Amino acid sequence: MYIADVFQAESLPVSFEIFPPKGELPLEEAREVVSGLAPLDPAFVSVTYSAGGGGNSGRTIDVARMINDEFNLTSMAHLTCMNATRENIRQTLGAMKDAGIQNVLALRGDRVEGASAEDFRFAKDLIPLVREAGFCVGAAAYPEGHVDCLDFEESIVHLKQKQDAGAEFFVSQLFFDNEAALRFLDHAHLAGIEVPITLGVMPFMSKSQITRMVFMCGASLPSPVVKLLARYEDDPKSLRAAGIEYACKQMVGLAEAGADGVHVYTMNKPDVAAAAVEALGMAGFGPAAHDAREGAPC
Ligand code: FAD
């Protein structure tokens, strides 16, 4: 199924992000994760891509194919271009096509040290190639601006360039401040963004994880999150539960505000995804409650 079509559904599209097993680790790990996610009936499951280029792309493709073929779900393969040549990209898209993948998230990625390919500067340069190859193509959106772009309005201009290049939907970077994300949606719509923007939420699991993420993506930490981090600093179990509960409340708030969709950064933990679906279901969004969600923490 083309992901652009999932946004036509009456119920809120709830999707999940997972990452493939690292290096030579067995694919079985990913199979277990997907089998935990499948009963939650996600709108789609996206699979991250190693920015190193061709080396690890096979893992993304293998996992996306498994999602489609073994679980009969819709997959989306991420694809980065910054360290790749046009030929690398053509080959990877060919392999994705052969694997039956229909949806690609077209990304610039971050530069890998030592890489010298200069065929792509920005994601907008990749998007037309993916589209021409017959995929439904999504791109990344940044509710608080991209970490390298200090001017928020400029980041909206760059978002619009991706839509103009052919992006059919956007998936957002994680954020902890719903107000900031809703302001961003207003700005994007005023700037002419018409394609759906599904909003990415990641439950925080530990202080070190949240610190790393905030530095990597520039998301702001609202005071309720800072207070939870302080309160449960020495109690990892309670901090994890608080992080999931905070994310669930965030997602319900976004759904109530009329978000096009919610994308859960699952960190390969089906219980996290289950908690999100449970909370949304209880608030009247998404598919009906499911057995597999029993025992979810919120
Ligand atoms: P772009 O849209 O090209 O933007 C990159 C920077 O260039 C931004 O600062 C932007 O403002 C600026 N820019 C864009 N256009 C112009 C222009 N015309 N002139 C000047 N400046 C411009 N990374 C991975 O390696 N693998 C993954 O699987 C992965 N998945 C992701 C999924 C999501 C939903 C998100 C939000 C990010 C993901 N990333 C992933 C991270 C992403 O690769 C980085 O954030 C990367 O730095 C930017 O990618 P982009 O596609 O947004 O780039």
Summary keywords:
globular; TIM Barrel; disordered C terminus; 298 residues; alpha/beta; binds flavin-adenine dinucleotide
Could you walk me through the main structural features you see in this protein, from its secondary elements to its overall organization?
The chain has 298 residues and is an alpha/beta fold. It has a single domain (12-295), classed as TIM Barrel, CATH 3.20.20. The protein is 44% helix and 13% strand. Strands 1-2-3-4-5-6-7-8 form an eight-stranded parallel barrel, surrounded by six helices. Strand 4 (103-107), helix 5 (123-132) and strand 5 (136-141) form a beta-alpha-beta unit. Helix 2 runs parallel beside helix 11 (270-282), helix 5 runs parallel beside helix 6 (152-165) and helix 10 (236-256) crosses helix 11. The model is unreliable at 288-298 (pLDDT under 50). The site of flavin-adenine dinucleotide has 24 residues, from strand 3, strand 4, helix 5 and helix 6.
